[in-house]
Specification:
There is one protein chain. With 74 residues, the chain is mainly α. Helices cover 72% and strands 0% of the residues. The chain folds into two domains: 31 residues, no CATH class; 33 residues, no CATH class.
Length: 74
């Protein structure tokens, strides 16, 4: 095997070692940032649909209308 191949295999192992505690926490607590990423994606799609809205208030109303109720906003 050449140096390049060894270098490529070393990358993921180094990342796993560096993030070992983060990985353990994710597996222990079963928490991810998937919900936040999902909400951000939905907001980006709404913003794309909202081109032409005259105000930020109309955009905010659309985001709140399309978002599911959260514990702080029922």
């Amino acid at each position: 095997m050449g140096r390049t191949c060894r270098r490529q295999r070393r990358g993921p192992a180094r990342t796993i070692r560096a993030r070992r505690q983060d990985i353990a926490n994710a597996l222990t607590h079963r928490l991810t940032n998937a919900r936040v990423e999902s909400r951000n994606t939905k907001i980006r799609l709404i913003i794309r649909r909202a081109y032409g809205f005259r105000s930020i208030a109309a955009l905010r109303a659309m985001i709140l209308l399309c978002s599911p109720a959260t514990p702080d906003r029922s």
